[in-house]
Amino acid sequence: MMSTLLDVQNLWVRFPTRNGVFDAVRGVSFTLGRERLGIVGESGSGKSMTGRAILRLIRSPGIVEADQISLEGQDLMKLSEKDMRAVRGQRISMVMQDPKFSLNPVMTIGDQIIEAYRLHNSASKADAYNKSLEMLEAVSIRDAERVMRAYPHEMSGGMGQRIMIAMMLIPNPEILIADEPTSALDVSVQRQVLDIMDKLVKERGMGLIFISHDLNLVADFCDRVLIMYSGRIVEVCDADKLHEAKHPYTRGLLNSLPRLDAPRERLEVLERDPQWSEAPSVSGSE
Amino acid sequence: MAETQTMREWLLAETPTSRRHAKISALYQGWLSFRSNTMAMIGLGILVLLVFIAAAAPLLSPHDPFVQDLGNRLAPLGTDGHIFGTDSLGRDILSRLIYGARITLYIVALVALIAPIAGLLVGTVSGYVGGWTDTVLMRITDIFLAFPRLVLALAFVAALGAGIENAVLAISLTAWPPYARIARAETLTIRSSDFISAIKLQGAGPLRIITKHIWPLCISSLIVRVTLDMAGIILAAAGLGFLGLGAQPPSPEWGAMISEGRRFILDYWWVATMPGLAIFTVSLAFNLLGDGLRDVLDPKAGE
Amino acid sequence: MNMLEVAGLNVWFGKNRDRVDAVKGATFDVGQGESFGLVGESGSGKSTILRAITGLAPNWSGTMTLGGKPIGKKRPKEFFKTVQMVFQDPYASLHPRHSVDQVLGETLHLHGFKDIDARVVKLLDDVGLGQKFRFRYPHQLSGGQRQRVAIARALAPEPELLLLDEPTSALDVSVQAEILNLLADLRNDRGLTYLMVSHDLSVVGHMCDRLAVMKDGEIVEILDVVALRAMDATHAYSRQLLEASL
């Protein structure tokens, strides 16, 4: 029904340590079409590692292994580091949690966007400037000209994140990986940033991988959800049916949330079953 | 269960059973990660060897380092009974190097005791108390920093008189300001952290906070810095010795030996080269050790 | 009698031109044994109120009374026997080189307790950690375990009022549930009074009896939890927050 953009088969991320090899991601398989795919899990579940492994951004001594990570038929595992650099940013972009660490603090925002634009397109300065203004307006930034002259520290978290998204979208990538893009933001701003991402993904027909710990957010925002636990996918479900999830881990997570509309004396505590981490990874292929 | 437990398991236990067990186990884990750094282990090996040589100097040295033999002066390398040759007064260079290790260690130990502790005191107090205290202490530090190191040391030695103790004192006086700077910078970041706020809420006073909470965190980066600076300190001591302001003849201080050998360097190169190599080796060992310690101790570089 | 009364509280940082008013004229009271929430977005001044109460934010004006007695500029040792605080980030609130035993032992020592060993054992049991954690260092603990240690430290002087600064926002949801349950149990067992700061309305709705909504340093509305659940907020901003958190 959908064309497959990304096909990940049997992905492993290993870290050799003093006490043997630690597997952060253990044999994860999934596909991504032109859709919004959510990856949820708790800290240490391997969700961020999965996102980074796709771009082969795991820092040494970490090792990425996979049967294949194919981007429209091209196996990323077989590319050289140099070719990989062309893929990062050009074809797959990534938005991180905290925009403060991703922007250069001593350059104006305008200069950074223009630089990013001219890196990917041969354009004159004036053209690049106009294009950058357009990009900022596309992420709903009012008085974009003032923002172009500002430095990153003058921006609020929400603004910073919008600017990051604008920059990531300049090369018109096929896939956007967003790793907890809104966790550092207040709830009211969160919604705005998500709406912008949603609009852009729809308009451009991109694939989005949305990594988050927030079940409700993912249920709201994505089409399909992978639930990860200790490096494996334990359940795959449609986002609108997340609340009917079957796996005891997913159920446990949902039940442990306090809810305004359903007050309880005590919150349910998740009882972890060692079997969950032993069971084979569920395939997230469509 | 206790019987089957090996020493290694006890040391790496996830759940220490007593205060002492926890401390030893933490030390052992640090040692394990230090041990994996080959270069640092080489540095440590050289320094352990140096300590051993200094301790066993009378047993190891083939000759008395002070006995002159003018008939056999400036003997080349490999001469019978004088592997490293003899100097201008016919003294055995190897024996003098072996005894010189004692002086080098003495200088290193004294400077390592005085300078970082002075720096730690000034830096942490200045950083924690802030305000006027900070301004005054830091300006004093700046004044010391503004002088070239060797020149300041020279001035001190000139005022106090030449000699090994005065040389140590002079080097220490010029070495503490950078440590004060580091300690202050660390204190400023530690001071505003939540765990300091938390202990303040238990009613802890500034003295307790500085000594029990800030010092343990500053000390590791200071140790690293001191070890890396040790090479410079040995060279400064050698420099003072070379200028005739450190150890006085006939004391076999390495710098002073180079200074003596300088006169014959073109015809009898080994007289100056052998102590030079000794200084080089020990300095290098301290640098390697410092690098390894940084990996173990510095929480920022690690993880 | 109210445990804590705060009236016309202003808190500011910096001086003259750089002065930032973090809290402006905050007035609220917390009854004996009550659990009171402060809700708002980042920068709304909610955490600053806690820091002003404990003296960590020294520039404040207005009146604060604890158990009927006014809080002065300098807080005596007895003050910290009544009021304790749990910080937001358990990774930052424990000294990285102190073991659990050292953290709790030093706290007990500072409050003048003599039977330190027995009390450390008891505290660890109370927060559900148990003895095997006693000699561990923070890096050997998970986030939830660290927060339990921080709670044990706050309980050590047997306080009556516990200030909770976003105690679960740095934790996973399943761990959040455990910590919130622990806090609820401790309150029941010991009759504690809570003043809890959070950006998460559902957490406050679960834990608190009443709450104040803050925006830009001012309290815009004080609601009880029944009104909150009925979505019965009068101020536009509180309604906006409520909608965003459903």
Summarize this structure briefly.
The complex is a heterotrimer of chains A (286), B (303) and C (246). Chain A is of the alpha/beta class and 286 residues long.
What would you say this structure looks like, in words?
The complex is a heterotrimer of chains A (286), B (303) and C (246). With 286 residues, chain A is α/β, with parallel strands linked by helices. Chain A has ten helices and eleven strands. In chain A, the strands form two sheets. Chain A has a six-stranded mixed β-sheet with strand order 7-8-9-3-10-11, sandwiched between helices. In chain A, strands 1, 2, 4, 5 and 6 form a five-stranded antiparallel β-sheet that branches. The mean pLDDT of chain A is 86. Chain B has two domains: 1-36, no CATH class; 47-297, Orthogonal Bundle (MetI-like fold), CATH 1.10.3720. Chain B is flat and about 75 Å long. The two termini of chain B are 33 Å apart. With 246 residues, chain C is α/β, with parallel strands linked by helices. In chain C, 35% of the residues lie in helices and 27% in strands. Classes of the chains: A alpha/beta (286), B mainly alpha (303), C alpha/beta (246). Chain B binds chain C through residues 14-19, 21-22, 26, 193-195, 197-204, 208, 212-213, 216-217, 299, and chain C through 54, 56, 77, 80, 84-85, 87-89, 92-97, 99, 101, 106-107, 110-111, 132-133, 135-137, 140, 150, 153, 156-157.
Biggest sheet architecture of chain A: 6 strands, mixed
- Low-pLDDT segments of chain B: none
How many domain modules of chain A?
2
CATH architecture of the largest domain in chain A: 3-Layer(aba) Sandwich
What is the alpha-carbon Rg of chain B in Å? 23 Å
What is the first-to-last residue Cα distance of chain B? 33 Å
Protein name (chain A): Peptide/nickel transport system ATP-binding protein
GO molecular function (chain A): ATP binding; ATP hydrolysis activity
InterPro entries (chain A): AAA+_ATPase (IPR003593), ABC_Ni/Peptide_Import (IPR050388), ABC_transporter-like_ATP-bd (IPR003439), Oligopep_ABC_C (IPR013563), P-loop_NTPase (IPR027417)
Membrane topology (chain A): Peripheral membrane protein
